[in-house]
Each structure stands twice: as C-alpha cells, then as structure tokens.
Amino acid sequence: MGLLGSIFTWWNGATLGTSLFTRRFGNQVGKDALGNLYFVHAKNPARRWVIYNGSNDASRTPPEWQSWLRGQIDDVPDKALPPRRPFQKPAVPNLTGTGETYRPSGSLSRGGQRPAATGDYQAWTPE
C-alpha cells in the first residue's frame, strides 16, 4: 500500500496520523504471531493500542493480547500469563466471509443435501 492508501484508509494497518502518533508517543512492547504490533503511551502507560499487520479486525488479536489491551493484565502476556497448555488450540481470526468458513455437512453452500423429514414431528398447537 502506498502513501495515499495510508493517508485515507484505516482498514489496512495504520493511517498516516496513527503512524505519526505512534512514532512520537508510542513505545513498542510486543508483537504477536500474526505480526501485529502492540504499543503503550510513553507518558500514560494505561493507554495501549495495536497496529495490525494487514486488515484491522479485532478478531485478529489473540486473547492474551486482548487482555493486555483492555488492562486486565498489567504486564505483556509473555510475562503475565502462564505458558499455553498442550490442549489449548491457537486463536484464529473470524473466518466469516472467507473460503475457510465452517460449513456443516447439511449446509446448502457446501453442496450437501439435507436429510428428508421423517414425519415423526408434530407441531405444538396451543389449546
């Protein structure tokens, strides 16, 4: 994305204004597996923000970093939280509208056929 894109768009990374503000007042404190960068204000540590690597979508922020952004934990996740347990799956962004969207076996968008009604259902009617 060129300079004009960064001036006028907010949905793909940081705008020019956010970039200038971050450069002047922000201290980078971390980076997640998706490449998102996390900042804290130099004079007001309670002010925190993220610059996304790609589209600005809050579902692309892992849960541990969401906790940090909202002030639920004081230190960065690597220091404040216990290590990930083996049974925990990694967080994934919202996949709605992409080719990765979950489509169950009866879904018409998957090309499946819904099972025929068996006739054992009786609708309730009030007395």
UniProtKB/TrEMBL annotation:
> Bias category Polar residues: which stretches?
95-110
Quote the InterPro entries the UniProt record gives: NDUFA12 (IPR007763)
- Write out the ranges of the annotated region (Disordered): 76-127
- Protein name according to UniProt: NADH:ubiquinone oxidoreductase subunit NDUFA12
User: Where does this protein come from, organism-wise?
Assistant: Sphingomonas arvum
